[in-house]
Write a structure and sequence with these properties.
Strand 4 and strand 5 form a beta hairpin. This protein is mainly beta. The longest helix is centred in the C-terminal third of the chain and has 6 residues. The chain starts with 15 loop residues before the first strand and ends with a strand. It has a four-stranded antiparallel sheet, with no helix packed on it. Strands 4-5-6 form a three-stranded antiparallel sheet, with no helix packed on it. Strands 8-9 form a two-stranded antiparallel sheet.
Length: 137
Amino acid sequence: MAKHVVAKLGEIAPNSSKVVRVKGREIALFNVNGEYFALLNRCPHEGAPLSYGRLYTLVESDRPGCYRTSRKGEMLRCPWHGWEFDVRTGQSYCDPARIRVKAYEAKVESGAALAEGPYVAESFPASVEEDYIVVEM
């Protein structure tokens, strides 16, 4: 898969988001406690922009009146109808078996590593035949 540089480190405040466009798609980037996640910026329910959603902490319960919290800031609530998604995977908490948001890998890389490659120039054999230059593809 091709790499696309979409933001500078520090450009997205902690526990917030930024929308970028990659290959015609709107992608919502989330900075969750210094980790970065990328989701298609469209709720599968009715197309709400997920970048406007709220990040919150997962609350779980085994029985009434007994709650515990985990995964601080890793849950995303759709701004229109409150559908909930895991920002790590895009999995829906409304219908986990059937509904999810497309998740993309997002990671921090140094500028030096990006400059090194892996960039490969495509080349084609060329030859001169009488008065014409021919390129084979």
